[in-house]
Amino acid sequence: MTLAADLFFSFRSPYSYLAIGRYRDLSETHNVDITLRPVYPIAIRDPDILFTGTPLAGRYIFMDAARSAQMLGIPYRWPRPDPIVQNLATREIAAEQPYIYRLTRMGQAAANRGKGLAFADEVSKIIWSGNTDDWHEGAHMAQAVARAGLDLAELDAEVSAQAEELDAEIAANEKALEAGGHWGVPTLVFEGEPFFGQDRVEMAKWRMEQKGLAKR
After folding, report:
1. Where are the alpha helices (DSSP H) in 6-84?
2. pLDDT per residue as tens, the chain (216 positions)
3. CA proximity to 200, closest of 214, 184, 186
4. 34 and 23 in contact (C-beta within 8 Å)?
């Protein structure tokens, strides 16, 4: 019996990056099909949220993501460039966003091809691992996409030609995330139960094991 789950994911979320490789491994080694459901970051979905609440939140995320990566042994550095163009001091979101729309739409196109997890994992590595300051340029993206078994030129062509259709699917993902009981990412939804955060991977696996999860 093969189980099924949805993974709601953002390319701007450090915690999504810290979870994606482990969920990909789980899907490749165990009898569970995990469908990537890309969503736009809160900075795009609801930027007003970023200007409410305590300013300590951002500082805490920076610290916690770095130590979580260190604990997990995952290479990590805040991206250069950031997938969201934003003044981190004022939290102001720029009107022009040259990266996040392309990334998220390509993620949806990859998911439609059955390669969403591989795409998100490989692309997140070049964004978040700290190995390059120009992940969006040159061969970095093409090579990452190729490692996921896809072609960058083909994905870019679809993103250009079908942006509205892909955005409609992404909007449906965002509604499904809320219907699944959460608003943040990464959230894995399994049989109606949400598991939010990079520190819930093992808990999600534990729940699946209760439902018959076994190695492939």
Report:
1. 14-29, 42-45, 56-72
2. 899 999 999 999 999 999 999 999 999 999 999 999 999 998 888 776 655 567 777 889 999 999 999 999 999 999 999 999 998 777 788 989 999 999 999 999 999 999 999 999 999 999 999 998 999 987 999 999 999 999 999 999 999 999 999 999 999 999 999 999 999 999 999 999 999 999 999 999 999 999 999 998
3. 186
4. yes
The span from the CA of 107 to the CA of 167, in Å, is: 11
Measured distance CA(182)–CA(195) in Å, rounded: 9
DSSP character string of 124-154 = HHHHHSSS-S-TTSTTHHHHHHHHTT--HHH
Taking phi over 0 as left and psi of -120 to 50 as alpha, with beta for the rest, 149 belongs to left
Q: Which residue type does 90 have? A: T
Residues 192 and 13 sit within 8 Å (Cβ to Cβ): no
Q: What are phi and psi of 138, to 5 degrees?
A: 60, -140
Q: Which amino acid is at 68?
A: S
CB 85 within 8 A of CB 96: yes
Number of H helices, E strands in the chain: 9, 6
Give backbone dihedrals phi and psi of 196, rounded to 5 degrees, phi first: -95, 130
Cα separation, 127 vs 80, in Å, equals 8
